Amino acid sequence: MKNTSTTTDSSALYTLDQKIPVKQAIPFGLQHILAMFVANISPILIVAAASGLSSKQSASLIQSAMIIAGIGTLIQLFPIWKIGSGLPIVMGISFTFVSVFCYIGPTYGYNAIVGAVLIGGIIEGLLGLFAKYWIKLITPIVSASVVTSIGFSLLSVGASSFGGGSGSENFGSATNWIIGTITLLSCILFNIFAKSFWKQLSVLFGLIVGYIVSLCMGVVDFSALSGNSIITFPAIVPFKPEFNLNAIVSVTLIFLVSATETIGDTSALASTGLNRKVSDKELSGSIACDGFISSISSLLGCLPITSFSQNVGLIAMTKVVNRFAIAAGAIIMILAGIFPVFGSLLATLPEAVLGGCTLMMFGNIVISGLQMISNCGYTQRNITIAALSLSIGIGFTQVPDIFAIFPKIVVNVFAENCVAVVFIVSIILNLVLPKNMETHISSDNKQ
User: Fold this and answer.
1) Are residues 338 and 232 in contact, defined by beta-carbon separation less than 8 angstroms?
2) At 54, phi and psi to the nearest 5?
3) What is the pLDDT of residue 293?
4) For residue 395, which of 9, 25, 223, 250 sits 20 to 30 Å off, Cα-Cα?
């Protein structure tokens, strides 16, 4: 009887709706938060610095980022009306907007960013609610190409973290190599030797081992822990929104790009975690959540949130899709926002530790995308769409100067965003290529 109970408990982790014990939910939820924590606050730090905000304002925005990410994740898990997908999607501050915000902030001021996010989020949210009228443009081969591009785009992010973080003074140092390698090996070995559902905590185990090694090597910075209040609530509308037309148009275009990434993430999650195709209702709810919660984020003075590909990779690796486990992580995020000391402690996690864990996760997204392409079938049409969209999207964004002849707004949207380029090219090819390319080829050969 005891063995049967254990099996039942562990099998619940691989289903959406079965309830699991709190002691089981917390470590799996914490694993998700540790996987995305640094990426969630990094856009805030970059944009705040570019916009000339004070350290106090930046700290307040980080607090808001954790709270809004937790709320957004809970709404994705447990939809309100038509907003939310009902899938185990983890939300966080989007990196996609960083380049355009680093232009708008210094040019028009941070208040213009807040106003643009408010309007752009509403537009994306409405597009999500009415997705049934346009979602058929996103065919399986388009989704598969986008998912594959998401995986490839994240590989450099994982490698950068492994080296110590982009811009780090000791990037690529022996210390970072040692920490990243030990973390990665810990993940792999734990996955090999652990039993039952404990295998799926390999990332958390790697993070813990990597953190301990970092402590022993003296590279953990605890300065962020000083001067924190015990409990703090975020301010409502700390920045009065300003509605600048140029900023709104630019940011709305990026919201459309963000929607394409959400479509890819949601499709990948359904495919890798649930072994099925995503439904139109789930896609609609996921996009709507992306948009409307981003608008709410702007009321806290914060940046847009979106689905996090890191966590899709974690689910692809572990197959743990239980909503209550992910909800535990969302609650941890909210607590990290309300109790600044908790968030500051999570922020001490060195980049090299994160890099050691994420390399395998991001690779899983690439493989998932390739599996999705395989499931679509290797017809001449599908091969053309996938091959050309990936080669243009990944190839051109590796050489961003190729976009030099285009207006700045186009450069901001596409020059370093391979997911957006892959999406646009695959959509165009899907619309213009004949449905029966094999028939045409066969006829030509007979003649």
Assistant:
1) yes
2) -75, 165
3) 94
4) 250
